[in-house]
Structures are given as C-alpha cells and as structure tokens.
Amino acid sequence: MFGKKILSGFLILSAMSLVGASSAAAQATSQLDTVLQRGKVIVGTSSEAPPFGFVDANGNLVGFDVDIAKLIARSMFGGKENIEFVKQSFSSRWANIQSGKVDFGIQETTIYPDRLLNVAFTRPYQESGIVVVARTDSGVRKLGDLNDSKFTIANLTAPNEKDITERLFPQAKRLTFDNTAAEFAAVASKRATAMTVDYPIALYYTKSHQDMKVVGWVTDPTQNAIFLKQGDFKWWYYLDAMVAEMRGGSLFHQYSEIYKKWFGTEPANLNPEAAVLERLQSQSH
Q1: Last residue in a domain, options 170, 199, 219
Q2: Strand 130-135 to strand 173-177: parallel, antiparallel, or no bridges (unpaired)?
Q3: Do the domain assignments include residue 19?
Q4: CA dist 124 to 11, 106, 137, 185, 223, Å?
Q5: Between residues 231 and 11, which one has the greater pLDDT?
Q6: 22: pLDDT confidence band, cut at 50, 70 and 90?
Q7: What rounded mean pLDDT belongs to the chain?
C-alpha cells in the first residue's frame, strides 16, 4: 500500500513536471520564430490616415508606416518584401495584437503610460505632438497672435485639441472637424486661419503647400512606436533593435529616404557617434 502511494505520488509529480516543461516550451516559442517559419510578417496598419497609411488613386496601400514596415520585412527576409498588411481601425488595433491576428502594429500610435499596461512598445520610430499650422498670409508670426477674435482655429473632435484651443486661444473663434483633411480644407479655403494638428501631419501638408507654415508647438513632444503583444522578449528585442538601426545605425540612410519622401525634411539621427561624425564632416568643408 505504501509503495503504491509512493508510485502514485511519483506519477503525479512526473505529470506536473511534464506540464511545466510543456508550458516552458510553449513560452520559448517566440513570435519571431513563427514569423520566420511562416515566411512572411503580418502587420496591422491604417488605410485611412495619410500620410501614415492610406489607399492611393491606384488602389494601393501606401504611407510612411507602410514603408517602414516594408523596410523591416526586407531586412528580415534578405531583401524580399514578404509582408501582408491587415487594414485595421484604431479601435481594433489592441484586439488584433492580443488575438494574434497581426504580428505587430505600426499605426501612428503614441506611447502613453496607460497603453503600456496592455501592449508592449519598441523605442520610438518618430516624434510627434500637437502643433499649430497657419496660413502664411494670415499675419500670424507666433502662437500668441492667434488669441484674437478676428482669427478662426480649426481643431479635431479629440478632447485634448478642444482643451488646447480653449485654453491658449480663448478669444479666437473655433471650427471643429472629424478628420484632418477637413481641417486642412478649411484653412486652405480661408474658412479658418490656422489648425491644430500632429507634427508629422503638419510636415506632410506644409511640404506641398507653401502657403502654410508651422507656427509652434502647443503640447510636449510625444513618441510614435511599433506595438506588439506583451511577454515575448525575443520578438520585442528584434523589433526594438530594428528601430534603433533605422534611427541611428545601418538602416538610417534608408529610413531617412522614407522620411524625406513623406515629410520633405531630414529626420533626426539618434546615434550620438554618427551625429558627432556628421558635425566634424560639415566643419571640414
């Protein structure tokens, strides 16, 4: 009887060990391994948010985020663009990550403390924040000039933009829109003098419209980053290292070309050594 109890206990312990080993093995399978075995990466992005992700006149998905995702895919698969895009709304991006529908998301997404509780972020691949864009013929030279009843400021329905305009420009008139394109149209048609907009979008619009300019920042700078499911260090480390290479390493030249294509200006090189070398080279000329 005593021997049977020992055997029974041994079998239970063995079963528990096997369960633990299986769990450990499951945890050891990174999404990076899954992606490489599959032979393509599945990326969630927007199809209605120019210049980040949108459908062009030929029906192709294009944009800054789309090009960055393609750069990652080419680096991952030896120059081949083995990538599949999932067009997703902003409201569905977290669910698609949690369910595994997409391997990672790149969608004009800002790092905020509350979001860190639900998803993992890489280091930022782009700086953002809210700025004011005004017509060049408006006579507005600094932010304080807009606090006047003769001016009208366009802003989005987002509560923070409404709060900004009410707090900084209480004397100005306001127009509220559901999307940035409508804001831009209001300023272009002179229905509005200026608009509040994300900094990268401001660069995109002012690149091709010389009658508009960035007047100044009205929030602290924020950071846009790639997001992915929590708990997979190997996958996170790979994507984070890719962003590091884009922002100041071996992929900076390619990243820079993509950035200039969409925003018309050079991105900041976040590699201190490269920045010092750049400065020394400019001084020698």
Answers
A1: 219
A2: unpaired
A3: no
A4: 50, 11, 35, 30, 5
A5: 231
A6: very low
A7: 87
